[in-house]
Design goal:
heterodimer, A: about 350 residues, mainly alpha, ABC transporter involved in vitamin B12 uptake, BtuC, about 70% helix, disordered C terminus, B: about 400 residues, 2 domains, six-stranded parallel sheet, 11 helices, globular
């Protein structure tokens, strides 16, 4: 192995190490040994079976939304609205769970489908605002995120409030058959893991082997020339966002039918924004998504134990992931500059 | 190409694994003489309100029970920490040796039952809940290792209402409510009943003339775009002719807006809530503040658990009437505000001693619900159950009941 080759393998570890060092220094500043701090995080994430299950259960919606975002990012779209698409998916699934009664497994299947449709429509609104109203998808998405959250609050404190009165906590628990089957006492449904795997495979094949994937890439790299070459930018923009919305909506359904058992006040709590970080860290490569999302879930769950063991604020986990994303982006830019100076063309979808 | 990417992933995983091996930190098992207890808060421990009061209760236990060590977990709510669950936090506290876990919100009521079933050897206290109340609506829900603790804030709210009635010149007052449930209904109703008593008996005026408006903002504090803006609500109270605002929310908008109005020359007053230092925002217009003091009840619980003598109970703890600011003895308290005149203070002290002796009972019939339905007959004194589970606001109060 040549020195250059070793350096190339080591390169991606550098931002990770820097992020760990910065977080470690922060721990020292707060009077906690980094060894104890990171040790607590690791035990919190992987200490026993229930923790691993919990990390995995939190990972599912995050991974689903992130996989969806790969599609919209490939088309050059900043789908900030993914948070609202998760929420609206959760609302749609809850609607079926609370108000309808289908026989047997049809109940949960319809809930999941409704969530995907609702997420897709919600994203479709953002897309429509962009293509017809010239509203950038970031602003349209942010507005729709707030609307989805306000809609949740209206539902749980109004028409869907439990009979004993609204506590702003959530609706009554759904009947068992309206929930995903769970593994043991955990909040993880094995079916939801299958959903993630299926989503990864589908998006991988779609972007790699399909004509549509090619069109999205063309759109993402240069919308105006793609248009000139016959790619309908309006149609692809709408479809890419709706595809992402459907997966995000599915993630919302998983939140209400396995993590919780009811619609809650903050059903997502920022999973969509986390997914944006996951995707940026992955440099839009769908096969990396499950691993990075799992890393995020492990760090966040580990931070709970970190807070409990060290009595530090648990936002330290957020700092670790945040610094990591910053470092990776920064190093990505550096590499980009190097490539540029060597005369190679950028392959980043957002440029 | 794919192989190369996967190699990178394997590399990252290896790094993580190596770190894991290097960091295999020693387990922090509790020595036997140590008494470890967990406190789970719904908000930050320094919110100058509900959560801070519980946190300070935990500190009080640490100070007064030798060997006691608190593990605190802040802001356990799905907006701040979507990845955290009560069960997961309890798992960790128990693994660290906690034998008592206090969950300090009605939001945790159901999950506390689940955790208590999972750890039958650990004592659980759900503050403000009613699952362990044998005469309550949820009787039998809590396993025998779970109890409830709550302070009788209703008495302090009655004092707050009395102070408002003593001060008001327009006869109109506004109550800044959080969200609507049994607890918030009975608290604002207690304030209203206190106001009626004092308006009639000390001011010599007709209590039916009191204008008492409750506006619910939708949550315990302002969430822009989600709740009503408390600042606007309070401004609305004053625009509508009210000159006293009573706060039932966790934050300080009531006294802040009242202070601004006072600076413009208007004669207005405020009664904050929850935090003993609530008057500090604008002392000269502050009539006083009702607050929770969880320390004594938590200390008693910790001592009982530590000694092995704890048994299940639902405690609705009274104030220490001889001194409502005595942090060693009282469970709920009232601090007089600098806005009270000497005359008001004399009346208020008389009202307080009347409540203390039992000569004054505000929850005594005839009391009708807001829609006119009789709730307490002439001379009937409300049971704990009737106060705790007040189904609607009372006749004479304006605002939504549900």
């Amino acid at each position: 192995m040549s020195l250059g080759r070793i350096a190339r393998y080591l390169w991606p570890a550098v931002p990770v190490l820097i992020a760990l060092v910065i977080t470690g220094l922060l721990l020292v500043v707060f009077g906690v040994s980094p060894q104890a701090g990171f040790g607590a995080m690791l035990r919190g994430a992987f200490g026993d079976q229930s923790r691993v299950l919990s990390v995995t259960a939190f990972w599912v919606p995050l991974a689903l939304a992130s996989v969806g975002l790969v599609v919209s990012f490939t088309a050059g779209l900043w789908n900030i609205g993914v948070e609202g698409q998760i929420v609206i998916g959760a609302i749609a699934a809850s609607w079926l769970a609370l108000k309808f009664n289908f026989s047997g497994p049809l109940q949960i299947i319809f809930e999941l489908l409704a969530a995907m449709i609702a997420g897709a429509i919600w994203a479709g609104v953002t897309a429509f605002l962009k293509t017809r109203g010239k509203v950038h998808e970031i602003f349209g998405g942010l507005a729709l995120n707030n609307l989805a959250i306000i809609f949740t609050n209206y539902l749980i404190s109004g028409p869907w409030q439990p009979p004993e009165g609204g506590t702003f906590r959530g609706t009554v628990p759904f009947p068992t058959k309206a929930l995903l089957p769970l593994y043991g006492d955990s909040r993880l449904s094995p079916i939801s893991v299958v959903m993630v795997i299926a989503a990864v495979v589908i998006v991988f094949l779609l972007l790699r082997g399909s004509y549509w994937g090619l069109k999205l890439k063309a759109l993402g790299k240069n919308p105006s020339s793609a248009f000139l070459l016959g790619v309908s930018s309006e149609r692809e923009t709408i479809l890419a966002l709706m595809f992402c919305g459907a997966l995000a909506g599915l993630g919302g359904a998983v939140r209400v039918t396995s993590w919780f058992d009811s619609l809650r006040q903050s059903i997502s709590g920022g999973i969509g924004y986390l997914a944006l970080l996951v995707v940026m860290l992955s440099a839009f490569r769908v096969l990396l998504i499950p691993f990075i999302a799992y890393f995020f879930s492990a760090v966040l769950n580990g931070s709970i134990t970190l807070q409990l063991r060290t009595q530090l604020h648990s936002s330290l986990g957020g700092i670790l992931t945040g610094v990591l994303v910053l470092m990776v982006l920064l190093f990505g830019e550096l590499r980009q500059l190097k490539r540029f100076s060597e005369g190679r063309v950028s392959s980043r979808p957002d440029e | 190409m794919l192989h190369f990417k996967m190699g990178r992933v394997v590399f990252l995983v290896t790094i993580f694994a190596l770190l894991a091996a290097a960091c295999g930190a020693p387990a922090t098992e509790a020595p036997p003489e140590e008494f470890v207890f967990g406190v789970i808060l719904v908000g930050p421990k320094n919110d100058r309100g509900w959560s801070q009061a519980h946190y300070e209760g935990g500190l009080y236990v640490e100070e007064n029970l030798p060997g006691a060590r608190m593990i605190v977990f802040e802001s356990l709510n799905p907006a701040d920490k979507p990845e955290a669950t009560l069960e997961g936090v309890v798992d960790d506290m128990v693994a660290q040796g906690a034998t008592l876990v206090i969950t300090t919100s009605d939001e945790f009521e159901e999950d506390t039952v689940g955790a208590a079933n999972k750890y039958p050897d650990v004592t659980f206290i759900n503050a403000s809940g009613d699952d362990a109340w044998s005469e309550g609506m949820d009787a039998g829900v809590a396993p025998s290792n779970e109890g409830n603790i709550m302070g009788r804030m209703e008495d302090m709210k009655a004092i707050a209402g009395c102070a408002a009635a003593l001060a008001t010149e327009t006869g109109k007052m506004g109550y800044l409510g959080p969200l609507i449930n049994f607890e918030t209904r009975r608290l604002t109703a207690s304030a209203y009943l206190g106001a009626r008593y004092c308006y009639e008996n000390y001011r010599g005026l007709n209590p039916d003339d009191i204008g008492y408006t409750v506006t619910w903002i939708g949550f315990w504090f302002n969430i822009p775009g989600v709740t009503l803006d408390p600042t606007e609500v309070v401004t609305g109270f004053f625009d509508g002719g009210a000159d006293v605002v009573l706060s039932g929310i966790d934050t300080t908008e009531g006294i802040v807006v009242a202070g601004q109005n006072a600076d413009q020359g208007e004669k207005v007053w405020a009664v904050p809530y929850d935090y003993e230092g609530g008057c500090e925002e604008k002392p000269e217009i502050c009539l006083g503040v009702p607050f929770f003091n969880w320390g004594p009840a938590y200390l008693a619980t910790a001592q009982a658990v530590s000694a092995g003598t704890w048994t299940q109970s639902w405690d609705w703890n009274p104030p220490y009437w001889d001194d409502l600011t005595d942090e060693v003895k009282t469970n709920v308290g009232w601090v007089d505000g600098p806005g009270l005149t000497a005359e008001m203070k004399a009346h208020l002290d008389d009202f307080i001693s009347g409540l203390a002796s039992g000569d004054i009972v505000i929850w005594k019939g005839p009391i009708n619900l807001q829609d006119g339905t009789p709730y307490l007959a002439e001379g009937e004194i409300a049971s704990d159950n009737q106060i705790w589970y007040l189904p609607k606001l009372l006749e004479g109060m304006e605002g939504s009941s549900e």
